[in-house]
Amino acid sequence: MRSSGGLLIIISSFLCLFCFVALLFKIFHKIWWTPNCIQKLMASQGIRGPPYRLIHGNTKEISNMYKEARSRPLSLSHDIFSYVQSHVHSYMEQYIFLSSVYRFEPHEYPDGISKLETMSMILNESLRLYPPAVAIPRITGRVVRLGKLIVPANVQLLVSVLAPHHEPQFWGPDVHLFKPERFSGGVAKATNNNVGAFVPFGLGPRTCVGMNFATTEAKIALSLILQRSSFTLSPAYIHAPYQSIIFRPQHRLQGCRRLGARSPENEKRASTSLLKRLKVKAFSNYGRPSKTEIFHKIWWTPIRVQRLMASQGIRGPPYRLIDGNAKEVSNMGKEVMSRPLDLSHNIFPVVLPHIHAWTKIYGKNYLQWHGTLPQLVVTEADLCKEIFTNKDGVYLKPKFRPYAKKVFGNGLPALEGEKWVKSRRLANHAFRGESLNVSCCSSYVRNWSL
Ligand code: HEM
């Protein structure tokens, strides 16, 4: 009895000892072995950093740096990196810029980035085939003369960006091929001086203020990625360019379902709400509309505008009561989405099937109806240029719909008149090449020639 009690004590002490040693081993593994292994592995690939310290890593140094940065008064400067992320700033200087691969010269001009000619050509060709903004809207503030046309007030002008970008007349028979070398002599040469033929960032006074920023950012990001990795097309890739506010791949993350993806119920709900919205839109300006006002809005004005434009040779799909051409547009979209798309850059018939089909039937500029709103679709490069240049200030930006207002708020894209002039002046200054101050990034691309 006594001997079995002793055995039990020995076994349980052995188990306790074993658990204690295992725990010690686990702790040792977690706080010493794994961090050192990771540090060594990264160092062997040229990635250095502040040495790992037992248990707390670099948290103490980071916290001290923060305290030190916060204790200094900050001058009224945009150079906030060293203030907000003092540890990243300090470590980058120590372990990246001073390393043998990257040398940092503080006042270097960012010519390294502007010299990435092949990359500029590739970005331009991508923006030509897949412009993020496929069409840019304007609205006529009063009766205007556009080319030879007289356009009444309150007509929406839908300036197509995609159409001139895919027009064989400008780009030749290989228009649907990805050929960055067409931009080797610059944009003017590639377009044969047709200013309206390549407008991914718009044109004229309201051209994209972030153009320099966007292209520089893309070049820096791509140069960093391409120096370390290469790409090949995934076998799971499904070619489905898709327009929803901006132009993007429909299957953003492969294997992930888009929230609110199109199911038959969603489609039904969407089309009913569209109909509702159009009806509300048709009457929204009126408060309690009288019968005459309703008749005027949904029948008289559309028919009058249609006749006026037809008398000037501008044709289009006939206006249908309240809906305009919304149903046809939606059906054409559904029809295209139901077909599989081959791996081609000829995406105009897929992304804007109605504009593609109707320009073929009715000509380069035609009239279509978004509910009761007349839309003059303009694909002719000269007219696009005239609208964008907006010499007399008659082509206004349409008011944002509620969902777009949530995105843009009362920012620059939503402003008009004096307010826009003031804000644009400030934004122009902030987005100038010199203000962007990308000098530190040129070291990323110094030894790289693409
Ligand atoms: C590839 C990237 C981008 C493309 C293709 C693009 C395209 C455009 C286009 C076509 C317009 C003109 C809209 C019109 O005429 O009504 C525009 C305007 C504008 N963009 Fe961009 N954009 C890009 C990136 C950016 C970035 C990165 C910023 C800011 C950081 C930006 C800020 C703006 C602003 C503020 C306007 C309104 C300008 C005004 O109304 O005066 N964009 N953009």
TrEMBL record:
It is a single-pass membrane protein. It is found in: Membrane. Its main location: membrane. InterPro entries: Cyt_P450, Cyt_P450_CS, Cyt_P450_E_grp-IV, Cyt_P450_sf, Cytochrome_P450_Monooxygen. It comes from the Eukaryota. GO terms for molecular function: 11-oxo-beta-amyrin 30-oxidase activity; heme binding; iron ion binding. PROSITE patterns: CYTOCHROME_P450. Its cofactor is heme. Heme binds at C208. It holds the Pfam family p450. The chain crosses the membrane at residues 6-25. Its EC number is 1.14.14.115. PANTHER family: CYTOCHROME P450 CYP749A22-LIKE, CYTOCHROME P450 FAMILY MEMBER. Belongs to the cytochrome P450 family. This is Putative 11-oxo-beta-amyrin 30-oxidase. It comes from Rosa chinensis (China rose). The lineage of its organism: Eukaryota, Viridiplantae, Streptophyta, Embryophyta, Tracheophyta.
